[in-house]
Amino acid sequence: MDIVSSFANLLQVFTVTMTPPTHENLRELVVGWVFAPRRTIMGMLRAGGVERHHSAFHRIFSDAKWSIDTVGLAVYDLIRKLLPQGTVFLAGDDTLLNRRGLKMFGTGMHRDPLLSSRGFTVVRWGHCWVVLCVVIESPRTPGRYFALPILARLYLNKKSSGKWGRAYRTKPEMMLEMLKRVHAHDSEQSLHFLGDSAFTSSSMLKKMPAAIAVTGRIGCNSRIHAPAPPRKAGRGRPRVRGERLETPDEMLDTKGLQRIDLKLYESTEYKVRLAEQQGYLFNAPNRPIKVVAIEHQRGGRGREVFYSTETSAKAQQILQWFSWRWPIEVTFHDSKQHLGLGEAENRKTKAVRRTVPTGLLMYSLVVLWHECVRQKPALRLRKWAGKDHASFAEMAAALRTDSLGEFKRKHLSTPAIPASIHKFLQPLEYLIALAA
Questions:
Q1: Are 110 and 157 in contact (CB under 8 A)?
Q2: Helix (H, G, I), strand (E, B) or coil at 194
Q3: Rg of the chain over CA atoms, in angstroms?
Q4: Going by DSSP bridges, is the β-strand pair 224-225/284-296 parallel, antiparallel, or unpaired?
Q5: d(C-alpha 33, C-alpha 248), whole Å
Q6: How far apart are CA 253 and CA 283, in angstroms?
Q7: Which run of H or of E encompasses 332?
Q8: What is the pLDDT of residue 413?
């Protein structure tokens, strides 16, 4: 079995850093990655029908000389080529993959965001990954957005850093490193970063390159200042900040605020009170921002505060930009559910650092293949009210079906094969499509 040739062409992004033998082994492994019900290395090899010894495929991640960051930037270039944008929107977040074993590199206790709440914290043993994605709008379904991973970093908590002899780095520091790497790779392109409060705090904004626009969220009690006054003649250090302005809470306490209806996240509607002002955050006095504070009139969301360094943008546009960050959560869910992200049982340092990012890049390539390369959208195998597009499960099913169809045309379409054999192939094709 082999992968369909239209998708195999996208796998050429790995050739920028891999030798031909390593790339050929990876291509065989990708077949199992697409077809296997469980994505361990051995599970992939069984699904792909590979008869060679499994050590050759373990060495792709544990010993072979290639750079996962180079491949990620090649995927970034591929996205820019297939879906050119005036401004490239980047979204960042972290995700937890549950793992077992004390000897596996990088494992530690991390907060589980899915099981935790504001007043209750659940910690799990596993790997925590900080991921940077490119946000794109679907060319098939306008208004639908995808977050395509390009770079990822394994976060080690302080105890794990000491155990494995690594310098401790925070998640925002890792995100900042990846943003600078993308900016250095494509310095002429306009970049706009979307992140939650952990990655768009005032201290993070202060370190962000000035060429990268930022849209994020801050606390309701954040300190906001006017611009610094002109320097006066005489001795003394010039002022860095101007007079203190209203906090977001004080902005929302004002009577007579504008009330609007927002439609974000494809179909969700919100009724909110809105206040806005321009200023500077206390820890980032050199980056002007526009602050948008909203108070929900129904539901339990309460007050939320967002900001953007694009001070000329309207308040509704800033809120819309921030809503484009949500597809990264969908990316994490679909990668774990349908690509087996985190199932590979790697233990060595290089293998751990490469396998999960490769799975994330696989997600990006599958979406790009469906949205930009495949002639027709995938069939909607599962239907429910309001669903008018193919889910990622159906994209993966289309990839399996196309691969099987190409294999059938190449090897099972000869006149020597009896017609009685073909009647068994049609149910097999349907079962493979339902496997998603």
A1: yes
A2: strand
A3: 24
A4: unpaired
A5: 48
A6: 24
A7: helix 327-338
A8: 65
Q: What is the pLDDT of residue 185?
A: 95
Domain stops at, among 310, 326, 347: 310
CA distance 186 to 125: 37
With respect to residue 268, please indicate whether it lies within any of the assigned structural domains: yes
> pLDDT tens for residues 310-361?
999 999 999 999 999 999 999 999 999 888 888 887 888 999 999 999 999 9
State the DSSP string of 359-406. HHHHHHHHHHIIIIISSSPPP-SS--TT--S--HHHHHHHHHHHHHHH
| DSSP assignments along 65-97, one per residue | ---HHHHHHHHHHHHHHHS--SEEEEEEEEEEE
Nearest to 365 by CA among 3, 2, 1, 66: 3
pLDDT in tens, 389-404: 888 888 988 888 888 8
Residue among 83, 146, 111 nearest 326 (CA): 146
Return the SS3 of 110: strand
State residue 51's pLDDT score: 75
Q: Which residues of the chain have pLDDT under 50?
A: 436
The pTM score is: 0.91
Q: How many domains does the chain have?
A: 2
Domain range for 413: 392-434
- Per-residue pLDDT reduced to its tens digit, 20-74: 999 998 888 888 888 877 777 777 777 777 777 888 888 888 889 999 999 999 9
DSSP summary character for residue 11: G
Q: Which two tokens stand for residue 145?
A: 């957005």
User: Is 334 within the bounds of a domain?
Assistant: no
Q: What is the DSSP string of 209-272?
A: -TTEEEEEEE-TT--EEPPPPPPPSSSSPPPSS--B---HHHHHTSSS-EEEEEEETTTEEEEE
